[in-house]
Structures are given as C-alpha cells and as structure tokens.
Amino acid sequence: MKTFELNNKQTIPAVGFGVFMIPNDGPTYDATLTALKAGYRHIDTAAGYCNESDVGKAIKDSGIDRSEIFITSKLWLQDYGYENAKKGIETSMKLLGVDYIDLYLLHQPYGDYLGAWKALEEAYQAGKIKSIGISNITVNLWNKFKDGMTVMPAVNQVEFNPFVQQKELRKVMAENDIRLEAWYPLGHGNKDLLENETIVSLAKKYNKNAGQIILRWIYQEGVISLPKSTNEERMKGNIDIFDFELTDEEMKEMQALDTNKPSHNPEDPANETRLMGLKIHD
Ligand code: A2P
User: Residue 191 maps to which CATH number?
Assistant: First the structure.
C-alpha cells in the first residue's frame, strides 16, 4: 500500500476503507475483517457511525499488529466543547480497544468547535492521538476557525471525486499544507460518474474498472481516498491501483469532469440544525 506524508511527518496509507453507514454488531466487524484480509491497512470510522467497537474487534481478531494499521475516528457534535471532547476521545479509544488513535477528526463544523479542537490538541500533545484533523470544512469555515487553532490540522476530509473537485478549497488547504481526504470518492456509487465516457474509456485502456480509474486519479492528485464497498472483489480492486499511471493528459481530462456541485453543503443552516440534533448517546 502506498502512503502519503502528513504535515507532521506521520505517514498515512493513501487508500482507506470507510465504514460509514455499516451497522455495528456484525456487519462492520465482517466488512473490516474482510478489508484487512484484502490488504487494507487504514480504516476510517467515526463515533457518529456508532460502529467503533466492531472496528476494534475486527482489528484485534485480524491478528495484524496494531502498529501496521492506521485507524481514523471522529468526534461527534454531541461531544463538542472542551470537557465533553476529552471524554469523547476516551470513549472512542475504549470502544476501539486501543491506547492510541492514528488520526482523530472533528466530524462537523458546528457547536463549540474550538473548545473541542483544544481537547484534540491536548490529546495530540500527550501522544494519545498521532494526528488531528478536520472534516467538512469549506474555505469560509476555515477562515472562521483557523485563528483559534494552535496545532495545524493534518487533514481535511471532504466530499471529493471527479465531479466534485473542490478546486478553491484544495488551493487554500495546500497553502496550509493540509492534505485532503475524500469521502464519497466514487460519488457514492453514482452511475453518471461510474459510466462517464472519459472514465470508461480509460478503464478499457488500462484494463481496470471505472472505480479503479477514479481512485487512481485521486491518488495522483495527492488526495487520500476512503472508498466503501461491501463486495469483496470490488474491495480488493479498489486498492489494486498502484500498477498503472495516468498520463498528464489523462489527468487533465479527469480534471475537466468537475461540475463543482457537492451533494452536501456544510454551510447550509438546515444541515447544521439536522446534524446538531443527531444524538449518538444519552
Ligand atoms: P458495493 O458495496 O456493492 O461495492 P463511495 O465510496 O463513494 O461512497 O461509493 C460506494 C458505492 O460505490 C457503493 O454503493 C459500492 O457498492 C460502490 N462501489 C464500490 N467500489 C466500486 C467500484 N470499484 N466500481 C463500482 N462501484 C463501486
């Protein structure tokens, strides 16, 4: 598995397995174990997915050394604010059954954000979290929060795929040496994307599937991708992207597919109201 280096010199596997919306108590356990057997060494979960315990069990049962697996989790809004966040970090570590987390993010940009960030910074300084980062942060939100941060986030995890290229955000993140991570890298299975003419013709040329072309393009863009699949063959295929290379011309063809219309707008007050109301514990 190829890796990228983060701004604090930590390395991160370039492709991770995302477990968003996979239920706990079985399905996440099975999917994570299958992914680890297929060669994934980077699992992306979140307190808000309510499946950290299955991820932790699968990691233990895989028999793979903890040091070889990169675990990302995220703090949910209900646990924002400095004191709550300290407890939230401990809860994630307990559910995952680990004594450190590789990367921990603030999942959504609402509530007492900077109070929570301070708790992440302290856990980072204490070595409980190896890297800390942000998620769903637009340029406007970055400008709102950046001055309240002492430790520079290592990553910003946002919606990113050939139709949603976040070009302005990428520029601002690059200026700050914050690496992008892609959620919905395959457009959440969007047929228009997976059947796009440019992508399908590249798939034919390289004898790969459309998903692999997209994930290879994301890799060559320097972005970490978190594809999700419940199908073992596709799961394996999605990390089998390191034996070919898109040309500069092909990278440009892919860059031209951008429609700049994310499915999720973090600045929409309706999203703030909806997500702030989502409770994951009493
Ligand atoms: P499946 O679970 O049947 O493989 P995203 O990661 O952007 O959220 O996309 C996930 C969706 O894309 C799932 O519906 C998944 O279906 C599908 N998918 C995953 N890998 C591929 C692939 N290589 N080609 C086509 N579809 C894929």
Answer: 3.20.20.100
